[in-house]
């Protein structure tokens, strides 16, 4: 019995190919010997190949759905609903029209290339989503790659080493799979268009008419998500424009860093108004304007600030408060620290690297040059910190030098009260020391906001194991209310620790400057929040605050809504002007 298919008298195959199967051979292909036929670039298909139209149709439908979904995926996480995918992507219509016009040979390699490029853009879209949710800005393809390492470090701090490796590996495999599958989907759609040229042309023309009509009337099924989608084209355009802009910014920033009016001022003249004072600069993680003005957050925080103002006033201290506009929001604290200390706007990792490899004068280095001992308590730094030398710190203390033996609270390696206790024991109370300039970073209010401890007596802190004896303060509310409640609690705890420290250990020579580094993520603040952070200067010596009288900051620890607002990068020079004996050249 012959294995060849039955033939009609003319010798042609008796079975017609399935028109719904883009992989099925055409009659010409099945009857021609290998290497011949209408398309010499297409290998001959064995006439005996089993035909499964249901499988081919399913794969073709999945390919179309995958490409369609990748083209219309929204920009923000909160827009990811099934209805948000009921849109018409103009990029898909344009690509289908292009495939219809191409010769078969070109179509076979262009279709998978377009699919692969779509996969790359989908990865960029996912990065944009993550950056918008955490840093309140889109991903920058030139400057932001180093931040993926910081994201991994964050995962290690929250999920452990094994969990971080598993998540990173899964993300890498998913990225490879997306590009590969969309390339394969593009190739299949190219074959589908070839097999159904007339039907494809009609579908493209009809959808183009619908897209145009929806664009003209601004049709939306989901608010802010237009049915007439062009989001992928907009994304590609934005990324193409962002790359040269980010590259040019390197030269712009180098010029800004090199231009420093205070570089030539004698060190003794920059800070002469603070001679003999111990200046403590404290960054409170995620302490933003919303913490003291958002009705969903401010009750706990304002209560601590107002009570603290009264307590400090009774102890002989006074305070002035205003606002600074941070260059960042949501995360990237080190960039805010760099902005504050350098007087330069640092809003991306490229600028940060440019700063710390320059000879820019920082506030901390100015204190060192003028004779202060300089130290930094860094409970959030777990690796080598070569930047400490650039900033001018004589004695930095990363987390592994602080001797904490208590429980962790979310990302924070130790409670803020313990970090302040370490500063007090190691530096502030050190016998025979000279005037100090100290940076103390408080991390208890770092996301994720899971729990905070209660305050304990300063003489009970020891190595921190006392915190293991108390139940952590948590919330069982559902998201997003839980984040809001725990965020407010953590800010209140950080401020309470700081106020208690200055009330307990501060004296006539203490000058405390404390501020937030940035606003928290939009899940807490809501969309459209400012980038403002509160800043406060506390001192017992009235001469210190007299020097900033022309700043017109508000009395107390809490700035009013209409308090002055400066760019964060403006603080360094204003501080030199207020406390130095030389004006800006």
TrEMBL record:
InterPro entries according to UniProt: Alkaline_phosphatase_core_sf (IPR017850), Sulfatase_N (IPR000917)
Ranges of compositional bias, category Low complexity: 1-17
Highest rank taxon of the organism: Bacteria
Span list, region Disordered: 1-50
Residues annotated as domain Sulfatase N-terminal: 320-520
Keywords per UniProt: Membrane, Transmembrane, Transmembrane helix
Keyword DNA repair attached: no
Transmembrane residue ranges: 54-72, 84-103, 110-131, 151-184, 204-222
Keyword Membrane: yes
Gene3D superfamilies noted in UniProt: Alkaline Phosphatase, subunit A (3.40.720.10)
Name assigned to this protein: Sulfatase N-terminal domain-containing protein
Species assigned in the record: Pseudonocardia ailaonensis
């Amino acid at each position: 019995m012959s294995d060849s298919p039955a033939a009609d008298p003319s010798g042609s195959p008796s079975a017609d190919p399935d028109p719904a199967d883009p992989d099925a051979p055409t009659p010409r292909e099945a009857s021609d010997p290998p290497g011949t036929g209408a398309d010499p670039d297409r290998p001959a298909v064995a006439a005996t190949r089993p035909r499964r139209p249901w499988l081919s149709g399913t794969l073709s439908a999945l390919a179309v759905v995958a490409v369609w979904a990748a083209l219309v995926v929204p920009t923000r996480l909160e827009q990811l609903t099934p209805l948000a995918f009921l849109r018409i992507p103009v990029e898909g219509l344009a690509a289908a029209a292009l495939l219809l016009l191409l010769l078969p040979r070109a179509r076979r390699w262009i279709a998978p290339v377009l699919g692969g490029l779509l996969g790359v853009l989908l990865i960029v879209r996912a990065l944009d989503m993550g950056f918008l949710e955490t840093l309140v800005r889109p991903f920058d393809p030139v400057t932001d790659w180093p931040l993926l390492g910081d994201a991994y470090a964050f995962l290690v701090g929250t999920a452990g080493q094994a969990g971080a490796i598993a998540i990173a590996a899964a993300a890498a495999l998913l990225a490879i799979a997306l590009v590969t599958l969309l390339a394969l989907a593009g190739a299949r759609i190219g074959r589908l268009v070839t097999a159904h040229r007339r039907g494809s042309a009609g579908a493209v023309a009809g959808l183009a008419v619908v897209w145009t009509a929806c664009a003209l009337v601004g049709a939306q099924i989901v608010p802010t998500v237009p049915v007439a989608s062009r989001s992928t084209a907009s994304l590609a355009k934005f990324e193409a424009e962002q790359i040269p802009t980010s590259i040019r910014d390197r030269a712009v920033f180098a010029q800004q860093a090199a231009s420093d009016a205070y570089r030539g001022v004698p060190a003794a003249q920059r800070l002469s108004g603070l001679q003999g004072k111990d200046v403590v600069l404290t960054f409170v993680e995620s302490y933003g304007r919303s913490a003291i003005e958002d009705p969903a957050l401010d009750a706990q925080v304002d209560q601590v600030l107002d009570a603290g103002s009264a307590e400090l006033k009774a102890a002989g201290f006074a305070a002035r408060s205003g606002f600074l506009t941070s260059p960042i929001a949501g995360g990237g604290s080190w960039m805010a620290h760099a902005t504050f200390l350098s007087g330069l706007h640092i809003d991306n990792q490229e600028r940060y690297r440019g700063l710390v490899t320059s000879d820019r004068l920082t506030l901390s280095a100015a204190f060192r040059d003028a004779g202060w001992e300089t130290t930094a308590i860094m409970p959030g730094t777990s690796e080598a910190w070569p930047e400490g030398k650039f900033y001018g710190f004589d004695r930095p203390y990363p987390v592994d030098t602080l001797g904490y033996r208590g429980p962790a609270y979310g990302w924070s390696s130790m409670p803020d009260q313990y970090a302040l206790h370490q500063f007090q024991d190691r530096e502030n109370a050190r016998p025979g020391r000279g005037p100090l300039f100290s940076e103390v970073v408080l991390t208890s209010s770092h996301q994720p906001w899971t729990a905070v401890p209660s305050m304990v007596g300063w003489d009970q802190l020891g190595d921190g194991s006392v915190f293991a004896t108390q139940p952590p303060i948590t919330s069982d509310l559902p998201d997003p209310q839980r984040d809001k409640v725990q965020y407010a609690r953590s800010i209140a705890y950080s401020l309470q620790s700081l106020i208690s420290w200055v009330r307990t250990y501060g004296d006539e020579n203490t000058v405390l400057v404390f501020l937030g580094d940035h606003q928290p993520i939009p899940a807490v603040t809501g969309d459209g929040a400012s980038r403002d952070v509160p800043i406060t200067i506390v001192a017992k010596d009235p001469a210190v605050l007299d020097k900033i009288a022309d700043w017109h900051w508000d009395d107390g620890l809490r700035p009013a809504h209409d308090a002055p607002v400066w760019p964060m990068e403006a603080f360094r020079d204003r501080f030199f002007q207020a406390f130095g004996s030389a004006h800006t050249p």
